[in-house]
Amino acid sequence: MPMQPASTQIASRTAAIIQELKGLEGPLLPILHGIQEEFGHVPQASVPVIADELNLSRAEVHGVVTFYHDFRARPAGRHVLKLCQAEACQSMGSDAVAAKIKQLLGIDFHGTTADGSVTLEPVYCLGLCACSPSAMLDGEVIGRLDDEKIEEIVAEVRS
Amino acid sequence: MIPRIYIPADSGALALGAEKVARAIEQELKERGVEAKIVRNGSRGAYFLEPMVEVATANGRVAYGPVKPSDVKSLFDCGFLKGGHHKRWLGAPDKIPFLAKQTRLTFARCGINDPLSLDAYKSLGGLKGLQNAVAMAPADVVKQVTESGLRGRGGAGFPTGIKWKTVLDTTSERKYIVCNADEGDSATFADRMIMEGDPFVLIEGMTIAGIATGATKGFVYIRSEYPHAIATMNKAVAIARKAGVLGLNVLGSPNAFDMEIRAGAGAYVCGEETSLLNSLEGKRGVVRAKPPLPAIQGLFGKPTVINNVISLASVPIIMDKGAAFYKDFGMGRSRGTIPIQIAGNVRNGGLFETAFGLTLGEIVDDIGGGTASGRPVKAVQVGGPLGAYFPRALFDTPFDYEEFAKRDGLIGHAGITVFDDTADMLKQARFAMEFCAIESCGKCTPCRIGSTRGVEVLDKVAAGIEADKNLALVTDLCNTMKFGSLCALGGFTPYPVMSSITHFPEDFKPAPARVAAE
């Protein structure tokens, strides 16, 4: 398990991110992205700090954080593997690809392996629709997934 | 002259191994002690040929593709730096049939040069439209865009010039240009290609929009699933600012315009314009009721032009070559060109920019070359997850906003997903409902609840439970969603569902009959 910083530390690092971005018009999403980049998720302890700095209620901040699929409540695994499950990839067998990867990793979508090595997520379109089925591993794009590529991915996330 | 090698850094090419090819070429150059300049260009959009490596020779460019890292040694052996023959040899890129048959206006420069070279952009006609615009009265710029017949390329097809005129005519101390780059529809990647392959054309288009309407600030809202596009756009904006394309004096004129790149956070519904505005403001991406129109009360309550990437990227050529030039392409009320994205189970997948009017059959069979699997085409979904499924029987439909509407379909953002005969249309209809349930913003009941009920009812149909009765229920539910939802998510989810039921009734037969039929 990754070490969780103490909540006071979270609060001070959150405040630093807010100071940097507060001058933007509509700064909340850039701030949340900044926090997620810093901590790997949006910690509960950040919420009151954001609310206070932006003059919002905690409920409003919570509402925004939970609306968007990107923002995590807890840290992801060391690797994040996103499999496209949208129509273009479906037409090229993304269902079978997902089933195979789930089986190899022993987890379902939104799950993290017990050793914390990888989190598996569905994604609805990576814009690689002429290179289906596609995936994104830690921000790197992979197209035309086949058995060989699937095995490479699984080996990489397990190492 | 040092040879120049072009290796795409477009996401699609990277997904197919362009980075490994680039490294192999670098390595080979070093080992052979050959000097050459590697340029990382965008993609020309022929993804079935990516990674497509080009070499600049005395007789022009020569392309090779699809190149694998294992091809690199033999490419050097065949003298590819001088255009030598090799099994991957494709000849002059603009003579490759898939590219030669296109009419490239918006994508004229995409994939040719380093996307971040402003000099390369200018050398191929870039900034001419903006130069013309700064010398004109705002109302004349709006008039030219209106006369070009350009309609919103995001899907709704609303005339761009009329939207701009509303913003120009609305008095306010602050106005905004917002570019919708939340390209979430499956089968679409035109926005991504432009942002990664020719970012300055979007910056130029947005700046023209600013000058035309009196807006001084622009935002590009890019989905977070596009990290490469976000990075390229951020760099391009910094370069444009430094070069005086953006700033207090656009191209030395008294017009001020600057812009910011913003990342979305994984919500599909934020591609809906009012939801996008809420998201930019830092709120939940919930859809707003219209009126007020964004053109009157948009971002932060100020008059706002909100246009799709391709609409804005089409403006520079209109301002360069004139409204009549652009309007001359197309058919009926669909003027100009449209970048059709051919995707899914298709042999020649990629971006094909052409004048409106090709039939669906020509696009899928002639240009796309049929399915990748080699099996017969069963259905094509046009317009993303909210678009209708078309059977072969409707392949004579011309690519035109009105013609598609007449057949209960839409062209949307012009993405086409091809399915072969293994597709189960009941499963596709169910997915449409499921996707709507996952992505609904929750504001209106038909979308929020209807989509979940839709999944349940279609599951009953699949299980053979009172199929006729339940199909009647789905039809009724679709009617409620279509007319009772505020935005296109709930309102258009019925298109893929109803088109599947209408055109592929055999897939909705009760389970025992389906088994018997197979």
Please provide a written account of the structure.
The complex is a heterodimer of chains A (159) and B (518). With 159 residues, chain A is an alpha+beta fold. Chain A has helices at residues 7-21, 28-39, 46-54, 58-67, 87-90, 94-105, 147-158; strands at residues 79-84, 118-123, 135-137, 140-142. Chain A has a four-stranded mixed beta sheet with strand order 2-1-3-4. In chain A, strand 3 and strand 4 (140-142) form a beta hairpin. Chain A is elongated, with a radius of gyration of 18 Å. The two termini of chain A are 16 Å apart. The model of chain A has no long low-confidence stretch (mean pLDDT 95). Chain B starts with a strand and ends with a helix. The model of chain B has no long low-confidence stretch (mean pLDDT 96). In chain B, the strands form four sheets. A five-stranded mixed beta sheet of chain B has the order 2-1-3-4-5, with no helix packed on it. A five-stranded mixed beta sheet of chain B has the order 13-12-16-14-15. A four-stranded parallel beta sheet of chain B has the order 8-7-6-9, sandwiched between helices. Chain B contains 23 helices and 16 strands. At the A-B interface, helix 2, helix 4, helix 5 and strand 4 of A face helix 1, strand 8, strand 12, strand 16 and helix 17 of B.
List keywords for this structure.
heterodimer, A: 159 residues, alpha+beta, Glutaredoxin, 2 domains, 4-stranded mixed β-sheet, 7 helices, 4 strands, B: 518 residues, alpha/beta, Rossmann fold, Ubiquitin-like (UB roll), 4 domains, 5-stranded mixed β-sheet, globular
Per-chain topology:
The complex is a heterodimer of chains A (159) and B (518).
Chain A: H1 7-21, H2 28-39, H3 46-54, H4 58-67, E1 79-84, H5 87-90, H6 94-105, E2 118-123, E3 135-137, E4 140-142, H7 147-158
Parallel strand pairs in A: 1-2
Antiparallel strand pairs in A: 1-3, 3-4
Helix pairs in contact in A: 1-2, 1-3, 3-4
Chain B: E1 4-6, H1 11-15, H2 18-32, E2 37-39, E3 53-57, E4 60-64, H3 72-77, E5 89-91, H4 97-100, H5 118-123, H6 128-134, H7 138-147, H8 160-169, E6 176-181, H9 190-197, H10 199-213, E7 217-222, H11 227-242, E8 258-263, H12 273-280, E9 304-308, H13 309-321, H14 323-327, E10 330-331, E11 334-335, E12 337-344, E13 350-355, H15 360-367, E14 377-382, E15 389-391, H16 401-406, E16 415-420, H17 425-439, H18 445-448, H19 450-462, H20 467-484, H21 488-492, H22 494-503, H23 511-517
Parallel strand pairs in B: 1-2, 6-7, 6-9, 7-8, 12-16
Antiparallel strand pairs in B: 1-3, 3-4, 4-5, 10-11, 12-13, 14-15, 14-16
Helix pairs in contact in B: 6-10, 6-13, 7-8, 7-10, 9-10, 9-11, 10-13, 17-19, 17-22, 19-20, 20-22
